Amino acid sequence: MSDVWPIIVTVISAGWILMTFIRDRRSQSVTHTNEIMKLLLENDRTHIEYPEIQMYLSQNSKQDVEYFRNETVLKDHLFYQAKTAVYKQIDMFDEILCTSHDTNWIYSFLRPPLIEEEDWKAYMIEKFRHPLYQSILKHEKHIFGESLRDFWKKNKKEILSRPVDPFIW
Predict the structure, then answer these.
(1) Alpha-carbon dihedral angle through residues 134, 121, 59, 89, given to the nearest 10 degrees
(2) pLDDT digits (tens, 9 = 90+) for 77-122
(3) How many domains does the chain have?
(4) Residue 169 domain-assigned?
(5) Residue 168 belongs to some domain of the structure
(6) Burial (Cβ within 10 Å: 0-12, 13-18, ≥19) of residue 144
(7) SS3 call for 28
(8) 144: containing domain
(9) Which pLDDT belongs to residue 28?
């Protein structure tokens, strides 16, 4: 009977370690999701404080991607505000994808999953339909992380399959 106690203690300890690991992962997942939500709310606050950015994005949603590489846009101060807001949002998307649990499958069990990750990806696809986002991703993708570039490459066909909705900005 004395040989059984070390086995029982080992099994209980292993179970405790596993439960602690799962609890900590869930806690980290909630914390990570909250950080992303703060970035999203900050982005929303920018659009509320500067509605002209929303107007610019909506009014130019039907433009060609190359329109945003034209010398004419460089004279419009709203272009700079809108591009800055778009950069900020793409950076947020880059962070989401970079820390996503399926980015690197070897270590994915160590990374806390993002809550509602598929919804975030659907949101990104919708935002990437705007030609300003596409222009940045086409001409400046090298400044973003590999995960974002891979996401763009993987979902480009779906992104381009539907026209942009000028009312969602």
Answers:
(1) -80
(2) 999 999 999 999 999 999 888 876 454 555 555 555 666 778 889 9
(3) 1
(4) no
(5) no
(6) buried
(7) helix
(8) 4-161
(9) 74
